[in-house]
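Support request from a user on the community tier.

User writes: "When I paste my structure tokens into the form, the page sometimes reloads and wipes my input. The last time it worked, I copied everything first. Here is what I submitted, just in case something in the input itself triggers the reload:"
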């Protein structure tokens, strides 16, 4: 049985909404728990599908995982399995983040290639090259990354691109390597800072978190900790776009506005009044129809690729023409095909999209291709005439806790309906 959302157009979102822990942090923090024997506690976990999936991944290598509301208790035994090839692995991208900790602790890992969103090619060459520099062999065999080392030693590693996942895997292997590892052109995302903070609490020695150069002094062993996940900046930004698109007035808490500086600046340029509350959240009021703004996706602190669908959705109802450039995932413009079904005046040329704003979108059945595209279609549906059916909403459930409930509380009218889809 498939589920879809019936999104009634014409909503104006008003009120307060709290953002909880970041999906792209909690899943990696859960993997980091593999590095220390004993019970690690992670709080402020979002209630999204990917968290129990990651719990299954950890159980498959021997951990006990208890999910209790927004808290995860992960008990890592002294003897772990090096084989992470359960079916759960294929259901999310972050599962590959057990590779670094398993190689770090066991000097050996067989990790099934991860699943995740269909947003373009997602190779693991930088993860593998980093592990090789640390002294491991790494090959792809029968759908798994296989890595093995006699011992890990510190190394100088240059990444071709500041990959989030490669930075995390190399970091989690390097914390238990002998000597000093320097990762240059490392990712600088707030989620990287979060994992560095947790690893440091566990006894790791890391300098440079949040900069392009991470220096890791390997230690013998780590100990468990209790750690609170940072607020989800992508979810926070989603609410900011929701306010701008619906000419609403939203106060968003639980997220650090410094993690959203460029996003909030773009929305100011689109005509929003934005007030930030230091470290805690922001308020965004959109008094009139938004004005068109250009967007270019780049690694942090650039404009996040995960927000590109919202940039397209906002532009499609703004006054004027926007150019949107996608530099990270080539297939993310698939979202535009669905927006065109909703009456958006948009076209792509390579990694650029040109969107001419229309006064109102027009409801239609549309299909979510990934988490962010799904949420983008829901917001677009709020700006359309009539009832928009958004299909394949399990994508949205993977990343947005209580999305529909929150939207309805803020003034939207959306129903979750369970039926079989009939694709035109
Ligand atoms: N890349 C390589 N080789 C590698 C690794 C990456 O060529 O070994 C390329 C990718 O193909 C891509 C770019 O580098 O073009 C960036 O990939 P990155 O490794 O930074 O992404 P990721 O770690 O796989 C995370 C998030 C994504 C988010 C990206 C970029 C998680 C679980 N996923 O993916 O989030 O888009 O960083 O910020 O943390 C989402 O939440 O909806 C989502 C897709």
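"...and here is what came back when it finally went through:"
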């Amino acid at each position: 049985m498939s589920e879809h959302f019936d999104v009634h157009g014409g909503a104006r979102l008003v009120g307060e909404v709290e953002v909880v822990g970041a999906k792209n942090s909690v899943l990696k923090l859960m993997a980091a728990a593999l590095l220390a024997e004993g019970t690690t506690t992670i709080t402020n976990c979002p209630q999204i599908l990917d968290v129990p999936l990651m719990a299954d991944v950890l159980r498959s290598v021997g951990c006990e995982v208890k999910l209790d509301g927004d808290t995860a208790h992960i008990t890592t035994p002294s003897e772990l399995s090096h084989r992470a090839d359960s079916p759960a692995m294929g259901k999310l991208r972050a599962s590959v983040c057990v590779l670094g900790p398993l190689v770090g602790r066991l000097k050996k890992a067989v990790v099934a290639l991860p699943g995740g969103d269909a947003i373009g090619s997602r190779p693991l060459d930088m993860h593998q090259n980093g592990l090789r520099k640390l002294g491991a062999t790494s090959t792809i065999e029968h759908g798994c990354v296989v890595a093995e080392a006699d011992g890990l030693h510190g190394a100088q590693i240059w990444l071709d691109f500041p990959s989030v996942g490669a930075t995390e895997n190399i970091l989690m292997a390097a914390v238990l390597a002998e000597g000093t590892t320097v990762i240059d052109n490392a990712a600088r995302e707030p989620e990287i800072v979060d994992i560095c903070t947790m690893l440091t609490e566990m006894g790791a020695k890391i300098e440079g978190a949040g900069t392009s150069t991470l220096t890791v002094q390997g230690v013998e062993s780590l100990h468990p900790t209790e750690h609170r996940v940072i607020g989800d900046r992508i979810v926070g930004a989603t609410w900011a776009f929701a306010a701008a698109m619906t000419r609403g007035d939203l106060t968003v808490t639980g997220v650090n506005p410094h993690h959203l500086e460029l996003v909030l600046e773009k929305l100011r340029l689109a005509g929003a009044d934005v007030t930030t509350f230091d470290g805690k959240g922001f308020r965004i009021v959109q008094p009139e129809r938004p004005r068109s703004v250009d967007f270019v996706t780049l690694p942090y602190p650039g404009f996040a690729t995960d927000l590109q669908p919202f940039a397209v959705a906002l532009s499609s109802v703004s006054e004027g023409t926007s150019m949107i450039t996608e530099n990270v995932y080539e297939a993310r413009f698939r979202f535009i095909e669905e927006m065109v079904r909703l009456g958006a005046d948009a076209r792509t040329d390579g990694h650029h999209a040109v969107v001419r704003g229309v006064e109102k979108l027009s409801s239609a059945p549309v299909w979510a291709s990934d988490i962010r595209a799904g949420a983008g279609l829901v917001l677009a549906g709020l700006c359309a005439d009539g009832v928009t059916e958004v299909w394949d909403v399990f994508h949205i459930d993977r990343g947005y806790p209580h999305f529909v409930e929150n939207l309805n509380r803020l003034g939207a009218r959306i129903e979750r309906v369970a039926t079989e889809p009939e694709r035109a």
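Agent notes: The reload is a front-end session timeout and is unrelated to the input. The radius of gyration is 21 Å. The mean pLDDT is 95. Escalated to web team.
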